[in-house]
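[User]
If only I could read backbone structure tokens as easily as an amino acid sequence. I have put the entry right below:
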Amino acid sequence: MAQKKTPSHSFRIAEIASLSGVSTSTLRFWEQHELIKPDYTESGQRVYLQEHLEQIRDIQRLRVVQGLSLAAIRTLRARSAAGTQGTLSTPTNTAASTAGDGIGPQLRTLRNKKGLSLRDVAAQTGLAASLISTLERTSLGASAASIHKLAAFYDTTVTALSKPQANNHSTSKSGVVRSDEARIAPMFGPDIRIEQRAPSDAAMDCQKWTLQPGAGSEDAYSHAGEEFIYVLRGLLEITLDGHERHLLYPGDNIYFDSNRIHSWRNPGEEEAVLVWVNTPPTF
């Protein structure tokens, strides 16, 4: 069997890192999250082509300039592959932006009430103005930590922002929520699904989370209260205070003070399904 020939215009990982300004560790991380797919030689070495370099630069632009999460970028890449070819662009018309009012218009209203510009909010939160703009327009594109930071800045919570603006979700006096009656919080994109399983005025924020492989908070955050997580299926990795890492398997649970800085992700190869409870509803 003949060995696969390496094109003369190809690059090794160190070369592509130097050309793109993206570290080799980040390139490997993006590959794990299926954002880029280099070719491989028979000996197992990565080989990058000019098209990979363009993709890497697009991803870097969306991460740094637009401030998009890895999940949002992966969604854009899937749409680009299914439709037009070429560079990626920020979504302007998504299901989340048309499903009800969404979180974006509420964030814009809160910003306008404070009389602040996008640059003002960016300067005070440390988030990119382009990220805030995208989130206000599409209700998508930010990580869980970024949305939580914005909610805290506006003296509200992610839970409050995800409540329906119209009173079109009836609540049974018995407290029963049927399987098809849960409210869906769409702001985290297709890789993170959050079902609100408690009434809007409940003292506990009871949710069912479904995380696709690789999905996570990306950054760490904290808030008032306490929380409980129970793993129904898959894996969950949660890190407390930046160094205390726990890997939870089906049937495992964790209970911790939400004031502790925490981050989380699904490190497995299948979706993770969780029961997640915050009290009071401060997420």
